[in-house]
Amino acid sequence: MSTITPPPGWGAAPQPTPEGAAAWNASQSDVWVYAGFWWRVWAFLLDGVILSMVEGILSLFFGPKINVEWEELPIPDGSGQTVDVVNIATTPLPHAHPVSILIPHLHSGSDWHTFGVLLSLLPMLYFVLFEASSFRATPGKRLCRLEVVTLTGGQISHLRALIRFVAKALLFFPPLLLIVAFTRRKQALHDMIAGTLVLRHTKPSQIIPFPPHD
Asked: Could you list the residue ranges that cross the membrane (predicted)?
């Protein structure tokens, strides 16, 4: 009859080592804890707030100047007369003459297209550069203690981070995100395509063995 040996801390005797418990703890390998659905959601929301703040600051300092020009169009009443804003304010109603409609036109200048392209590239640079760096995560993921790694636990390359971002951008559909809750390693579709994992942490508290009670 086979017996099941419980893990350390659950009634099993620790493995004897010459150096004692300290050496036993040092020999333990890292334990991977995969990030679940809600941890990913909170990290995504935090990254969205950070990106919005950065885009707002960049718009204040580097955004194109927006000018407002008003076009005055007469109300078609047969008279063809128009009245400007000053005359409207000084003319007693309801005996006012036919008034005109003021239509605003916004002009952002010729540099708006360049700034728009830069803003559209900002999320890609944000995710790719942070996830492929030694941080292994965006600031939002770091606040949630998440890391993006390869299938073997290594740091991902810029190309892999770019593939992951493009796949996530193309496949971003809220119901598809639920697949994280049903895959064995909590992978989303973009993780499967890019060959990445999102870990909650890799070094939890070490399990300290102790002798069973008599």
From this structure: 37-62, 112-130, 161-182
| CA nearest to 160, candidates 128, 135, 120, 182 | 128
CA distance 25 to 87: 86
- pLDDT, tens digit, 9 for 90 and up, residues 45-73: 999 999 999 988 887 777 666 666 666 66
Contacts of 52 (CB under 8 A, 6+ apart): none
Reading the block at residue 47, the tokens are: 């990254």
**What type of residue sits at position 157?**
S
CA–CA separation, 66 and 86 (whole Å): 25
Range list of β-strands (E), the chain: 33-34, 67-74, 100-107, 147-150, 196-201
User: How much is the pTM?
Assistant: 0.61
Ramachandran angles phi, psi of 167, nearest 5°:
-65, -40
Tokens for 51, please give them.
């990106």
CA dist 176 and 188 (Å) reads 8
Average pLDDT, integer, range 93-118: 62
10 Å CB burial of residue 47 (0-12, 13-18, 19+) is buried
Strand, coil or helix: what is 115?
A: helix
Closest CA to 134 of 163, 164, 154: 154
Query: How many CB atoms lie under 10 A from the CB of residue 20?
Result: 11
